[in-house]
Amino acid sequence: MGNDIKNIDDYKSAYKKSIENPESFWADQAADFQWHTLWRKVLEPDLRQGHNKWFVDGKLNITINCLDRHLEERGHQIAIFWEGNDIRGDHRQLTYAELHQEVCRCANGLKAKGIKKGDRICFYMPMVPELAISILACARIGAVHSVVFAGFSAVSLADRIKDSSCKMVICSDFNDRGLKHIPIKEIVDEAIALDCDSVESVIVYINTGGIVPWTEERDMWWHDFIGEQSITCDAEIMDSEDPLFILYTSGSTGKPKGVVHTCGGYMVYTAYTFKNVFQYEPGDVYWCTADIGWITGHSYIIYGPLLNGAITLMFDGTPTYPDPSRFWKICEKFTVNVFYTAPTAIRALMAAGDTYVEGHDLSTIKVLGSVGEPINEEAWHWYNEKIGKGKAPIVDTWWQTETGGIMISPLPGITDTKPCFASYPLPGIQPVLVDVAGHEIEGNNVEGLLCIKHPWPSIIRTTYGDHARCVKTYFRPFPGMYFTGDQARRDEEGRYRVIGRVDDVINVSGHRIGTAEVENAIDEHANVVESAVVGCPHPIKGQGIFAYVIVRQAVPDEVVFVEEINQKLVEMIGPIAKADRIMIVSGLPKTRSGKIMRRILRKVAESDYANLGDISTLLNPEIVDEIIRKSQETH
Ligand code: WT7
User: Which residues pair with 450 in a beta bridge?
Assistant: First the structure.
């Protein structure tokens, strides 16, 4: 049976075993689950071609392990607590038995609509229990879920629906976020109108009520969809390597790619990391504030917690509505024991002032988590002192959509914590730092490109419909290793600190945005000839979006122009892609081969004018002076 890590010796021996004998180590962890058929082989690795298979020929259904397996022991225990946007609204709760029934009803509804194993279903939903229910229902019948964050635009939604030719969309009527009222169904209709021919049906959950556009043959209300269905449903028997879900994420080039995770390895890894990283104990109330539209929500609101029979809290609002004490009010109301959030939220709440924290009973919190971007020292200390009262260790968890689960993290109360360091690799994870030539940088107190040497169970399996892209992005840069796209340093004692992306990806409030996508959207503006986008430091978001734009005709009113560009970004990507600064320039620094020298643009965006480096190879060095001058004038 799999062993939980309870002290430093456990960690050391688990780590040692996981490296010396990974197959036996992961077989032990996998033995905790209910398998229909055991695997024939634990691992068939192929880091060169990106074909890594785990628990080969094993058969299972992840929802049996999330739900059925717990019914006897904790059928009446809460599985999901839910808190809505409106502070005066009722909260909801579902026990494991209730969740099991609802998932079965929904699964039968899906079958009645002709959904079969392998079909793709797109979700565009607020953070309501029905989202968790329908995701699990999808997994129960072997369909593949593709959740799209409900802040993305109709154009982005359409791109994702088309890329994986989804047969069904599950959405709500509207969504309230703070004071915003978002017409979800209308956006879905707009997206489908953009040539989403694969969509046969749309299921609409009434969240707020109100009138929505309707297409008679295609659309169906959630209550009609599940209404008559039975509360039992046999689970589809899945192969370990059958896809469980697709989740789109941005890269340095082109459109977002659909990261594919499969059933067996993802199950074993998210369950193992959840219980150990958060040191979850039965009965603890666990709250991760992420949206299920991101990987954090998949792995650590739904799957990891439910696989462990945990109590997981879902919150459908924002940290600052009705005021910045909302998180702490919820922690007090539900006596939260483990709290997991993003640095951007911590910085925003810190900036709002300590008065919003004071007077709230946070004494139940024993572990704090951080994820999504590097946490700065000031935010780390504030979190530690004001929220954890110096008694709740902070787990700064480093991982990615592609890794499926947490890779590097302190273990609370077991390994030490150091501000801004994700610290030590979890068992099974072999991080290495390499230089640009791919040579491993050994020893401590060094910095380099972060790669992972050996496959782990929830490693990305493919990018949907384009395996070549997956190989090119993750496995070709440094053959024999997985490349993360991050730069990291290793301190004197071997702890890792992840510094940031080395590719053209910006991390805005913990959300990955590809500069190419932003540039494409800006270039849609009729008066734009060319644009170049880089990240710039931002006090709350971590990184902001800085766009340099060349225009066709002189812009009479810059304020209007900036608004128009942002309108394009909202329309093409979503509000998260709005630019923080837009600078009109007469040219972009280019090399003789016509490549934009982004290094210079990044330095200017950081106001670091003294360290531009060598600009002598530029085709148009004079442009650098213009850009610096403009930057100084407007900053
Ligand atoms: C990128 C992955 C992991 C779920 C949420 C984000 C950055 C993530 C940390 C951390 C420093 C971090 C990396 C990574 N990142 N966690 N603890 N410290 N950087 O998933 O959208 O796939 O983004 O987020 O740059 O590559 P994602």
Answer: 433
CB-CB contact of 16 with 428 (8 Å):
no
- pLDDT 10s digits, 224-257: 999 999 999 999 999 999 999 999 999 888 889 9
Tell me the C-alpha distance between 553 and 255, whole Å: 29
Q: Rounding to the nearest 10 degrees, give the CA dihedral for residues 568, 570, 573, 579.
A: 80
Mean pLDDT of 434-459: 98
- Ligand 1 atom at minimal distance to the Cα of residue 250: 21
Say if residue 3's pLDDT is above 80.
no
Q: Report the predicted TM-score, pTM, of the whole model to 2 decimal places.
A: 0.97
Q: What are the structure tokens assigned to 370, written together? A: 């951080």
Q: State the virtual CA torsion across 55, 61, 66, 72 in degrees, nearest 10.
A: -110
Site of tokens 């702490």: 328
Residue 401 alpha carbon, nearest atom of ligand 1:
22
Query: Which residues contact residue 428 at a Cβ distance below 8 angstroms, ignoring those fewer than 6 apart?
Result: 18, 22, 25, 26, 269, 454, 456, 457
What SS3 class is residue 92?
Answer: strand
Minimum-distance ligand 1 atom for the alpha carbon of 290: 5
406: left (phi over 0), alpha (psi -120 to 50) or beta: beta
In angstroms, what is the C-alpha Rg of the chain?
24
Pocket test for ligand 1, best of 270, 394, 397, 399 (most atoms within 8 A of CB): 399
Residue whose CB lies within 8 A of the most ligand 1 atoms, among 368, 512, 543, for a mutation test: 512
DSSP calls for 466-509: -HHHHIIIIISSSTTSEEEEEEEEE-TTS-EEEEEESSSEEEET
Answer whether residue 2 shows pLDDT above 80: no
Q: Which two tokens stand for residue 281?
A: 């104990």
What is the pLDDT of the chain when averaged over all its residues?
A: 96
Instruction: With beta carbons less than 8 A apart as the criterion, state whether 458 and 243 touch.
Output: no
CA neighbor of 248 nearest in space, from 463, 516, 483, 50: 463
The CA distance from 397 to 551, in Å, is 42
Residues 6+ apart with CB under 8 A from 381: 419
Q: Cite the DSSP H helix spans in 80-216.
A: 96-112, 129-140, 154-163, 184-192
Beta pairing, strands 482-490 & 496-501 = antiparallel
Identity of the amino acid at 557 = D
Contact (Cβ atoms closer than 8 angstroms) between residue 257 and residue 463: yes
How far, in Å, from the CA of 486 to the mean position of ligand 1? 9
- With a CB cutoff of 8 Å and minimum separation 6, the contacts of 108 are 226, 229, 230, 233
Longest Cα pair distance anywhere in the chain, in angstroms?
73
- Taking residues 170-175, report their average pLDDT: 98
Name the percent of the chain lying above pLDDT 90. 95
> For residues 488 and 484, what is the distance between their CA atoms, to the nearest angstrom?
10
Q: Which of 547, 570, 523 is nearest to 630 (CA)?
A: 547
